[in-house]
């Protein structure tokens, strides 16, 4: 592909990725599905490096859905072991490169050993600022909204919040990733065109990019194509195209003063 000049692109601040295709990648090679998950871990490393080097602020990876517990017991066990191993192996490297690690989802379902490893990784990297890496594990968009609603209900019950004070903003404050900008770009690999209960609230205004490539083959060039495609999109947020273009012109004039 032609070289992409990233200095000329409008980069997303927050990229979310549904990493799909590990199992199919392995099966195409006559291997067990778990082989694909291990290969997928290498693609994670490439994606994190790309995002950090290009100045993306937040990267959220859908690592393990709350529905994934329904998969074969052996596969789930391998995924949990892989999660633990990758955290242990990579966290010092991530810390060296000023990457903040956060695990979002219902962590109570994980083993005590894995929960401890997650806490250690989050505490070690909590003050890093180069990139925030959110790992969505045992996460579901409906769960996220439900737990936020429960927190608001509790606040009302305790007298901390009035019923009329509940708003979209108040609900959003209780969601995972509340302190970060909403995803600008959602990438899904593997050729499927659905969000699979991922960040249902937060993706309201995101641009979607669907890649046919399977996740273990998602490399820097594939990521670059997604970002370049995003840069060409016109994000309206309910405005007309003319209003968006005028806002861009006004911004350019103001920045040139």
TrEMBL record:
EC class name: transferase
Parts forming coiled coils: 107-134
Any one GO molecular function term: magnesium ion binding
Positions with a binding annotation for Mg(2+): 20, 207
The reaction(s) this protein catalyses: 8 isopentenyl diphosphate + (2E,6E)-farnesyl diphosphate = di-trans,octa-cis-undecaprenyl diphosphate + 8 diphosphate
Cofactor: Mg(2+)
EC number, as in UniProt: 2.5.1.31
HAMAP family: ISPT
Similarity section: Belongs to the UPP synthase family.
Cited function: Catalyzes the sequential condensation of isopentenyl diphosphate (IPP) with (2E,6E)-farnesyl diphosphate (E,E-FPP) to yield (2Z,6Z,10Z,14Z,18Z,22Z,26Z,30Z,34E,38E)-undecaprenyl diphosphate (di-trans,octa-cis-UPP). UPP is the precursor of glycosyl carrier lipid in the biosynthesis of bacterial cell wall polysaccharide components such as peptidoglycan and lipopolysaccharide.
Record protein name field: Ditrans,polycis-undecaprenyl-diphosphate synthase ((2E,6E)-farnesyl-diphosphate specific)
Protein species of origin: Pseudidiomarina piscicola
């Amino acid at each position: 592909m032609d070289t992409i000049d990233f200095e000329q692109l409008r980069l997303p601040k927050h990229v979310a990725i549904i990493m799909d295709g590990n199992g199919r990648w392995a099966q195409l090679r006559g291997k067990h599905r778990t082989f694909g998950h291990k290969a997928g871990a290498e693609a994670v490393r490439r994606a994190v490096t790309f995002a950090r080097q290009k100045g993306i602020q937040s990267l959220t990876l859908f690592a393990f859905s709350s529905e994934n517990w329904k998969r074969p017991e052996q596969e789930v066990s391998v995924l949990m072991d892989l999660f633990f191993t990758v955290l242990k192996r990579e966290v010092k490297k991530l810390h060296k490169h000023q990457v903040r690690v956060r695990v979002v989802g219902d962590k109570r379902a994980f083993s005590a050993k894995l929960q401890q490893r997650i806490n250690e990784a989050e505490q070690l990297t909590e003050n890093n600022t180069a990139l925030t890496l959110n790992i969505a594990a045992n996460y579901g968009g409906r769960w996220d909204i439900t737990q936020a609603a429960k927190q608001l209900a509790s606040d009302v019950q305790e007298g901390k919040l009035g019923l009329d004070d509940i708003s979209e903003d108040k609900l959003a404050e209780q969601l995972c990733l509340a302190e970060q900008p909403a995803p600008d770009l959602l990438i899904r690999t593997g050729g499927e065109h659905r969000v699979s209960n991922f960040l249902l609230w937060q993706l309201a205004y995101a641009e979607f990019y669907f890649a046919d490539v399977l996740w273990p083959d998602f490399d820097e060039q594939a990521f670059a194509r997604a970002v370049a495609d995003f840069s060409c999109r016109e994000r309206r947020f309910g405005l007309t195209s003319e209003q968006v273009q005028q806002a861009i012109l006004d911004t350019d004039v103001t920045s040139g003063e």
